[in-house]
Structure formats: C-alpha cells, structure tokens
Write a structure and sequence with these properties.
Length: about 140
C-alpha cells in the first residue's frame, strides 16, 4: 500500500466534491462521501491508474515529448537526447517512487491551476481524467 496519496487535492467525486485524504496506519486512502457513508479507497489503486494513463500518453507521443524537453532545456545534442530518452525508459521505476513519496505540494498546486482533476466514483474507480491541453482521440 502507498504511504501517501499522490494526487491529494486533485481528486473529486462524481458530484464534483473534493475527496479527502486520510491515513489508516501507514497507508493513504481517499475518502469518498457516499451519502454520509465515508468510503475509504486505497490511494494506490487510484494513483496507479492515473500514472499509467499519464505514462501511456507520454509514451504514445515519445518523439514530441523528447523534442519538447530538449527545447525546454535549450539543448539539442546527442547526449542530452540520450539522457531524456533514458529517463522516459525508466518511467516505471519513477512511478513506484512517486507512489512511495508523492508529488511535492507545489507540483500538485500547479496541476490544479492547470485544471488537472481526477474524477472517481464511490468505489474508487477512475471515471474521468481531466487533463487540459491533452488531445482527445477525435481531435487528431
């Protein structure tokens, strides 16, 4: 189980109400209000679902992501490109680290300001992942 909720403050229920986060022992849970009954959903299951979706998005646009990183860094040499591509290849390991330590508060605030939200149902199933700026399959 995860010790921290990666997307704390960015998860809402189907009624657009913020989902609280709590610790039970050492494990983090999202708390969904189901008409007064507080359902505890293991944060790891929600967070892993979201991280896998993000990873798939990055990997499906790998060349564009690499080029954007090179542009951001202001470098376009072979070694920098290899380092960026290597970093993308290690996303699975980085995902596990995120599940263990979470995102910094500043990163979560930035994501929230950008309109990033995770919508879950009372059982903790991700029903929508709102990522402004992401292209929908119909947009392509």
């Amino acid at each position: 189980m995860a010790r921290t909720a990666v997307f704390a403050g960015l998860v809402v229920d189907e009624n657009d109400r913020p989902v609280a986060v709590t610790q039970v022992g050492q494990d983090a849970f999202y708390v969904v209000d189901d008409e007064g009954f507080l359902r505890h959903v293991a944060s790891e299951s929600v967070d892993r679902h979201v991280l896998v979706a993000l990873q798939e998005g990055v990997l499906s646009n790998r060349e564009a992501v690499v080029q954007a990183m090179l542009d951001y860094l202001g470098k376009d040499d072979l070694f920098t490109k290899a380092a960026v591509e290597s970093s993308l290849g290690q996303m699975g390991e980085q995902m596990q680290q995120l599940l263990n330590v979470g995102l910094p508060e500043e990163a979560r605030q930035w994501l929230g300001l950008m309109g990033f939200r995770v919508v879950i149902d009372v059982h903790g199933e991700v029903i929508n992942l709102e990522m402004p700026g992401a292209t929908e399959p119909d947009d392509e």
